[in-house]
Amino acid sequence: MTKTTVQVDGMSCNMCESHVNEAVRKAFAVKKVTSSRKKRVTEILSETPLDPDALRAVIAGTGYTVGDISSEPYVKKGFSLFG
Predict the structure, then answer these.
(1) Residues 6+ apart with CB under 8 A from 37
(2) How many CB atoms lie within 10 A of CB 43?
(3) Fold of the CATH domain 2-73
(4) 59: which of 14, 33, 44, 73 lies 20 to 30 Å off by Cα?
């Protein structure tokens, strides 16, 4: 799994967050996508890394300003008896 974090400026309400989330879901095979207007960020979980240029184009196409995009391996945090 890969976690991709995108800086997104211009979101001002819940509908803005939904608009970005829906655009990402339609363009890519993702497991989860969440946006926060307060943090100015969209976080995406996917099985494989996403193309940063394509991701930038999709989000910019919704009318918002895209900043830095970073990706990292995602490891689900969970309960473990062995610490």
Answers:
(1) 11, 12, 13, 14, 16, 17
(2) 15
(3) Alpha-Beta Plaits (3.30.70)
(4) 73
